[in-house]
Specification:
Residues 81-186, 227-347, 409-513 form the DM10 domain. Helix content is 16%, strand content 28%. It is an alpha+beta fold.
Length: 554
Amino acid sequence: MSVNTAHGLPLLPGNAFRDTSRSAFPRPQTLTYGNGYALRGRPAVGGGQRAPSYGDTVQLAAQATDHVGARRFVPARAAYDKKVLRFYGYFRQEVHDSPDEHWRIRPVVIYYYLEDDSMCVMEPEVENSGMPQGKLLKRHRLPKSQQGAVYHWKDLNVAMDLCVYGTVYRLTHCDPFTQEFMESQGIVLNDPEPTASDPYTSGRRKPQLYHITPSNYDNFKQFLTMDGKVLRFFALWDDSGSLYGEKRAVLLHFYLVDDTVEIREVQQPNSGREPFPLLLHRQRVSKRARAACQPFPSCVLEVSKQEVEEYYSPKDFRVGEELTLLGKRFLLYDCDAFTRKYYEQHHPEILLKPLPLDKKPQEYWKRVKNPTGDPTIQRLWLFGGLCPELSVSGSGAAQEKPDKALEKDHKVLRYAARLDSQNPQDRGRHFIISYFLANDAISIYETPKRNSGIIAGKFLEKTRIPKPGSTVDNPEYYSPADFAIGATVEVFRHRFVLTDADQYVLDYLESVSEQDQVPERTLSSLRQALRPGGALGPIRALEDPSEPTAGAPI
């Protein structure tokens, strides 16, 4: 059993006494250096002796001498710990297949660690450079030659080339610590040199801004006093010089807050033009540019602020005179009340001379009342545009056409027909011919047939069909009297043979036979084809879904 020699008691719990006056509890130092070698010792335990601390070991190592009085050996990792030499330089990188640059300069920082003679190469990172930057070479001993030699700090100097792995680094300068260390070792440094500039980076730098003496005009006051105030001019844009050009009405807005101009085209109903919102978006318009910019066309060269000598101002807008903006001529013929008041207050020397304009041309339309007295049927006729026979002369013949269209509106005569053709593929094709009594127009619809390979549907849009042999000056169009069962109708070099008709066709022709002089041959052919119980039989089977039912309102 162990015995506590200080008090003669066994080392059991309760028999040991602790020194209450002790305030420091250092951990004993076990790692020391001896003759340049790392040694591991054991801490002294018991006997009241304290283990030597790290400070005591360093102090003893510094004071220890050999028999001839020389200092003991200290390793480099202890003498040069955390001591680094720093050199600044760059290397030149070739650039292939680029029309903008042939080579570029990349700056680097070379670190030399004295404790183990290792080196690393770092490149400062540039934001949005598009190149991998940062650590180019990790920390290790750089080879100097193929024989296995490595670079030493004695081989480094300023204004020299350092070749590492085929890349030549140019050392330009170093930091003050490196300069002090090299000079303390007896090495004379060369004169530092500036880092070469990259031509591509230099070309992308923005030019230096030159200070321009500000004018006495207060833009902030203009914003506070003129915000929301706009001068409005009524003008005519003279575009008669271009192909199919004419004069158009426009609105010119001049914003007093920033001297910008906006041009809006006045939209006319049923003009047939695309409703563009702006003819010229809001911008400052240059009045006079430098002489060097005049030979260049404006569509190629955009004039910048530095090249403009003067912009348009309210003094340039004079009612009653012609104004040229961006190569377009505008005649200012009037303005609104606010614009007149503004010129009276701020520019009384400018006289506003409104110009009277010609009256608007007469409208080419008139509303025609229904002669039958039905208020639900009202049509807007464009005289001269519906058919060649109509005119605005107001004659009885011209008045008869609108009355006929209003009376016979939505009345359609339908016939079944086949195509008279020598082509074997046209056999079995069935058509429905619709005759519109309102305007004597004809439309043709082809009924679908399974596995025929022919796209069915609308064969001919609703149009008036002239008879063969009629002239352009005196055309003769098809009428219901020409549509007899078995007759041939030629439509734009396509021959159709009528095979059947609706019962409504026979009823309608019998009711108007005396008035319109329908031939008896046409009526007899319809009576023979339309047997009792067979009305609408063949037509309903080939019915066109896009055409209205005969005699029924749409």
